[in-house]
Specification:
This protein is α/β, with parallel strands linked by helices and about 140 residues long. It has one domain: 3-Layer(aba) Sandwich (Hypothetical Protein Ychn, Chain: A). About 35% of the residues lie in helices and about 20% in strands. Strands 4-3-2-1-5 form a five-stranded parallel β-sheet. The radius of gyration is 15 Å and the shape is globular.
């Protein structure tokens, strides 16, 4: 009989949505986990890949729910009350977090490795990511 540990050792986040609020809150969770000493890995797939591209679109992509609060969000970013995604990713890297891009989604969306920001440690498939994070709590954002 194998005895399982009560808690997980790390935090693994799979970012799927391209909506700013989901990316923002997911990265906030990742930063909190890092601050608590947990190894943290972020996997960007599908629409979330836009946030790890060098020449990405607007910093503030919002879903319908977020669009209702767009003015407030933009003002909060401009006033420095909340950070933009680029700043959050910089903090994540400075604290030792890892960032990965989904190779399958990159192929589907015709994104090359050269198009990704320096914050991306490497590209990999989902199976590899899940294998590397088997001792981690996994969140799908």
């Amino acid at each position: 009989m194998k005895i399982m540990k009560a808690g997980k050792e790390g935090m693994a986040l799979i970012f799927h949505s391209g909506s700013y609020d989901r990316i923002y809150h997911g990265l906030s969770i990742a930063l909190a986990a890092l601050a608590l000493g947990r190894e943290t890995r972020c996997f960007f797939t599908y629409w979330a890949l836009e946030y790890v591209k060098k020449d990405r679109g607007p910093d503030l992509q919002l879903n319908d729910e977020g669009k209702a609060q767009e003015k407030l969000i933009r003002k909060s970013i401009a006033d420095g009350h909340i950070l933009n995604v680029k700043e959050l990713l910089s903090q994540l890297k400075a604290m030792g977090g890892k960032v990965y891009a989904c190779s399958s989604s990159m192929g589907l969306l015709n994104i090359s490795r050269d198009e990704l920001t320096a914050e991306v440690d490497k590209s990999m498939g989902l199976t590899t990511f899940l294998t590397e994070t088997k001792n981690s709590q996994i969140l799908f954002i």
